[in-house]
Design a protein that fits this description.
By secondary structure, the chain is an alpha/beta fold. Helices cover about 40% and strands about 20% of the residues. It contains 22 helices and 21 strands. Strand 15 and strand 16 (about 395-400) form a beta hairpin. It is globular, with a radius of gyration of 25 Å.
Length: about 600
């Protein structure tokens, strides 16, 4: 392919690779040099508390399939996104890829086109092209796409990397990408696929190679599963660590390629040459590794289960149920200039979602609209996959699909507007930590900073929606005693010596605990404090309990309900996990255990 036919991001990537070629060659070809080290991190932990409200409303008429003439004179707004059911509500509100007669978008004065694009790099290109035209004064150009629709847990990666390109091209801060609202939620559709042994014995994942779009939501789900089971993750897709989960960057940043690469490797014996790493250092050996699993979503999951035997879904967004919201990302400057249109798009989408929740005709029509928009499969396929499907092959069962749409009450609850618990901020902050700590594919060297949540999310448009039934946010009930352990983790939380006062770095750790707790929303809590052997045994009982109480108080101040804490206990120095004769061991023993319990 000639240089002129390459995309903007392909050219940028090649430029970076050439510029760093000499250093990279020395780094990767010289055995014994340090590589990106595999790491274990705290996990995102979620439980079966769903953001799933229904506001009772009369059934509305369905849109026709005829393109609207009523809004044809309105400025055209283009949104681009992956082919997935998370966009069902906005597509249903539009009547298909283009605004149709009788659609909610037409009724709210919006002329909208929804474009399918499964390559993450091309989604970036479309948005960059739009901003290029917008910068020339073309407010509603047909070039590119004003907004893109992706998984919300992929937003820290997308926004931060694309923002870097915008800052480099136009100057820092001239254009700012922001998520303006969630319109749906993956509820099982996005998943890690692998052999059943990974589910029965997660430790058997060590040494596996998983094809994934690195930095995207499915990658996050896989990383989360590894950390939840105390398995290291190798962040470098050019190396292989037998003691960690390894990743292959899917061709073209395409989730369908993730599925195809697994199928090709398993059926044809296709392998990937990777530099072997042990303890963070390259050995000088090259490992030719088959692909063992993939992170993908519908229809990628169906492709794998149709083509291969011996594979199943290991973990999905049904377990990590608050993780992956369908998120619309636009340039802030364009959105502010087109405020009424942005508000109308969100309003129309939330109205359609509420219809889909109540009326089967609307859900079936949405399946038809989705099939037309994506030019893939048929209405029944998308209707069934929206609900989620089960299958079995050679005695191995598996799940496919599973999606939710957001109405207005869902959106307000998800962002904590109605109940003060911002579920998305917890996801955004935790994934940002993954990017910072893991540094996948040299992310931190190529991006100056991870855009913080407060800059990356703009809820002002949701808050300006009027004349729509708000509904009532569902709340967790903590009145009953919980008995079954969901997860148990221990954190080294720094206190002032001999005191129960949280140090600043200790507060940072408790902030991470908070992020986990608001996603494990239907669980109750036990906090157990521990100390080292400094001081008296009786004094340490009191000190350890006081430290657990300090963590409780900090979490309550951040919004965790007080009746969610089932037990607070201090065990003093009785249960050491480290050697109290060393400073490092003492530090390990000064900790607070957090147990999540379900009913």
């Amino acid at each position: 392919m000639s240089w002129s036919k390459l995309t903007f991001f392909s050219k940028a990537l090649i430029t970076v690779l050439v510029a760093g070629g000499i250093g990279a060659a020395v780094y990767f070809l010289s055995p014994g040099l340090r590589a990106d080290e595999s790491k274990k991190l705290d996990k995102i932990e979620v439980e079966d508390k769903d953001v799933n409200n229904v506001t009772t409303s009369a059934e509305l008429p369905l849109a026709s399939s005829t393109i609207s003439k009523t809004v044809s004179d309105k400025p055209l707004i283009r949104l681009a996104g992956y082919a997935w059911n998370g966009q069902s509500a906005i597509i249903a509100a539009n009547g298909g890829p283009k605004t149709t007669e009788g659609s909610l978008m037409e009724q709210n004065g919006v002329n909208l086109e929804i474009v399918r694009q499964d390559w993450l790099t091309e989604l970036r290109n479309l948005q960059m092209k739009f901003i290029e035209e917008f910068d020339k004064g073309n407010n509603n150009t047909k070039e590119g796409a004003a907004g893109i629709i992706i998984m919300g847990d992929g937003a820290p990666y997308y926004i931060s990397s694309t923002q870097q390109s915008l800052d480099d091209k136009y100057g820092k801060g001239k254009y700012q990408l922001q998520g303006i609202g969630a319109i749906g939620l993956s509820y099982g559709e996005d998943k890690l696929i692998g052999p059943p042994s990974w589910k029965m014995n997660p430790q058997s994942m060590k040494g596996a190679l998983v094809s994934a779009v690195i930095g995207d939501g499915d990658w996050v789900t896989t990383v989360n599963y590894a950390f939840a089971n105390n398995i290291k993750v190798n962040p470098d897709p050019t190396t292989y660590d037998a003691d960690a989960v390894n990743f292959l960057a899917s061709a073209n940043d395409d989730y369908i390629e993730s599925a195809k690469e697994l199928i090709k490797s398993q059926k044809e014996g296709w392998t990937i040459p990777l530099k072997e790493v042990k303890d963070g250092k390259q050995t000088g050996k090259t490992i030719n590794k088959k692909v063992d699993g993939c992170a993908t979503w519908t229809p990628g999951d169906k492709m794998v289960f149709d083509a291969l035997n011996g594979f199943t879904d290991i973990v999905s967004t049904k377990e990590f149920n608050n993780q992956m919201a369908t998120t619309v990302i636009v340039p802030k400057q364009w959105a502010e200039k087109n405020k009424e249109a942005v508000i109308s798009i969100l309003k129309s989408t939330y109205l359609a979602a509420n219809q889909m929740k109540q009326y089967d005709k609307w859900q079936r029509k949405a399946g038809e609209n989705v099939a037309t928009t994506f030019a893939m499969e048929n209405a029944d396929y998308w209707y069934n996959m929206f609900k989620g499907q089960k299958g079995e092959k050679n005695g191995i069962s598996y799940n496919m699909g599973g999606t939710r749409v957001f109405n207005f009450a869902d959106a307000n609850q998800y962002y904590g507007i109605t109940d003060g618990v911002n579920r998305y901020k917890a996801v955004y902050d935790q994934v940002s930590k993954y990017l910072k700590e893991l540094n996948p594919a040299g992310f931190n060297q190529n991006v100056n900073r991870i855009v913080p949540y407060d800059e990356a999310v703009n809820l002002s448009f949701i808050k300006q929606i009027t004349n729509i039934d708000e509904g009532k946010a569902d709340k967790a009930d903590y009145s009953e005693k919980a008995t079954q352990t969901v997860a148990s983790g221990e954190w080294e939380i720094n206190f002032d010596p001999g005191r129960a006062t949280l140090r600043p770095e200790g507060k940072d750790v408790v902030d991470q605990i908070y992020n986990l707790l608001i996603q494990a929303e239907n669980s109750k809590l036990e906090l157990v404090g521990h100390t080292d052997n400094t001081g008296t045994q009786e004094g340490n009982y009191s000190l350890s309990r006081a430290r657990a109480e300090a963590v409780k108080s900090f979490l309550i101040q951040k919004g965790i309900p007080s009746n969610r804490f089932q037990k607070i206990e201090g065990k003093g120095q009785d249960v050491p996990v480290g050697d109290n004769s060393t400073l490092a061991g003492k530090a390990q023993n000064r900790r607070v255990a957090v147990n999540l319990l379900k009913y």
